Amino acid sequence: MENEKIIQAISAVFNGADERNWKKVENAMADRVLLDYASLSGSPAATLPSTQIIETWKGFLPGFDRTHHQLSDFQVSWQGNIAKVHCNGKADHFIDEDVWTVEGTYDAEVTKNIGRWAITGLKFSLSKQSGNTDLPARAIEKVKTKVHKQ
User: Strand 82-95 relative to strand 29-36: parallel, antiparallel, unpaired?
Assistant: First the structure.
């Protein structure tokens, strides 16, 4: 039962991002999250407010026509109120007919507070990317263009 709740918290972040349901993403995260996407972005790991992480994602993900994150092979271990989770991840990002695919693994720390599991740490380890690797820059430009038109 607890393993399912832990996996649901992690899945909610990615499902919420695909749905652009930022409240769902926020509800699955603790107030501060140690985020490490260095293997993909080159930026060092940092502990950030979840609201800042979501604002960053809002400046990027809506520029894609759609995204689809798939998580699999969850390995969950927990003791008390802290869980460690390892899983495989694949994310497809689409603009028109082009796709950019990112694959790797996630290592998450999930903490239970007041009966709710929330992500306190998330590390992505890139194994490969394929397709049109120019799409992230296009997505950012699309978001900026939308903002300027409003």
Answer: unpaired
- Those residues whose C-beta lies under 8 Å from the C-beta of residue 97, and which sit 6 or more positions away, are none
Distance CA 145, CA 150 (A): 9
Query: Minimal CA–CA distance to 66: which of 107, 31, 106, 15?
Result: 15
- Residue 36: how many CA atoms within 13 Å on its side-chain side? 16
Q: List pLDDT tens digits, range 111-120.
A: 999 889 999 9
pTM of the model: 0.91
How crowded is residue 95: how many other Cβ atoms within 10 Å of its Cβ?
Answer: 18
Distance CA 43, CA 54 (A): 16
Residue closest to 102 by CA, chosen among 143, 57, 133? 133
Segment 15-34 shows an average pLDDT of 97
| Angle made by CA atoms 131, 16, 72, in degrees to the nearest 5 | 60
C-alpha span between 63 and 144 (Å, rounded): 9
Q: Is 120 exposed, middle or buried (0-12, 13-18, 19+ CB in 10 A)?
A: buried
Alpha-carbon distance of 4 to 81, in angstroms, equals 14
